[in-house]
Design a protein that fits this description.
313 residues, mainly alpha, 13 helices, globular
């Protein structure tokens, strides 16, 4: 199969795309708590990533095992980039950043991936124009993310290495979304997920070799808190979530789908309050409202403006 130009238009059921995005970011928001439990039990950041995605890969390969390679070597290379950007690079950069800067900094900077996606789409696909609703919705949602971040901290310290790693994670996810929108036009979600997981694991091996402070996996895996959270991360936050995310990007497009990444902060805030007993302040609730408002604005303002222009014409 020869691919000449990527499909820049979303295809599929928009309602299904919205539901898939909500379920996905809900699981991803909860995954922060699961990862924290595993870290507290001695597992290293890279070790957690490898274990969860190895489990996910073993499941997905049963759903998609007949076809081995992509249609072209160029597309095979694109799958490798997907595995690097949405897998090893994103998760390892994010987790490592937590050791060099404040959690609030990492949360805020990695939440910039939707805005970066908008900018990248505008640069790469110059024929695709975004209305004021897209930009206004992104801005409102970012302000909401800042409020959610400040729910647990009243100051942000600048620590260059950690902040640079956080920005690298946000950029890598935006690049993944951009590549994914092209592959979605030619491959099913199971094949895309399988290839992404495989290359994510392969590119994580060098990082795993240099991680010396992680626990013996065979010792900690017998603990219910460990295998329970690993099952959730591997089957839910990885297998199901990545397949649903591919459906969402295909149905809504990369920009609209990535706007739901802002909603992830809300889930993390609520779950942390319930499971970890962290207090939600008024600023946190304002942030939740602004994120939801930003999501609505990004999806509806452009439609309202277009409808009014049509009426006046």
């Amino acid at each position: 199969m020869q691919v000449n130009t990527p499909n820049t238009k979303p295809t599929g059921n928009a309602f299904l795309g919205h539901i898939a995005a909500i379920v996905t970011v809900t699981m991803w928001g909860y995954s922060f708590v699961s990862s924290k439990v595993l870290l507290e039990n001695g597992m290293g950041p890279v070790q957690i990533y490898v274990c969860r995605f190895l489990l996910a890969y073993l499941v997905v390969i049963f759903m998609s095992h007949k076809r081995l390679w992509a249609s072209t070597w160029r597309e095979e290379g694109m799958f490798c980039l997907c595995g690097l950007c949405s897998g090893s690079l994103y998760f390892i950069a994010e987790n490592t950043a937590l050791g060099y800067t404040l959690t609030t900094n990492v949360s805020l900077l990695t939440s910039l991936s939707p805005l970066i996606t908008v900018m990248l789409v505008g640069l790469v696909y110059k024929t695709e124009k975004f209305g004021i609703g897209t930009w206004l919705g992104s801005f409102i949602a970012i302000v909401g993310v800042v409020c959610v971040v400040f729910n647990s901290s009243t100051s942000l310290e600048v620590r260059p290495l950690g902040d640079i790693l956080s920005l690298a994670a946000a950029l890598s996810w935006a690049v993944y979304s951009l590549i994914l929108r092209s592959l979605n036009a030619h491959y099913d979600v199971w094949f895309i997920s399988r290839k992404t997981f495989f290359y994510g694991l392969v590119t994580a091996v060098p990082f795993l070799l240099f991680e010396h402070d992680s626990a013996d996996i065979f010792t900690v895996i017998v603990q219910p808190a460990v295998w329970g959270n690993l099952l959730f991360l591997g089957l839910g936050a990885s297998t199901i979530a990545y397949v649903l995310w591919a459906v969402s990007v295909k149905s809504l497009g990369a920009v609209k789908a990535n706007n739901y990444m802002y909603f992830q902060s809300i889930v993390t805030l609520i779950v942390s309050a319930i499971v970890l007993g962290e207090h939600v302040t008024l600023v946190g609730y304002i942030g939740i409202f602004l994120i939801l408002l930003g999501l609505w604005a990004g999806d509806n303002i452009n439609k309202i403006i277009a409808r009014r222009r049509h009426i006046t014409e």
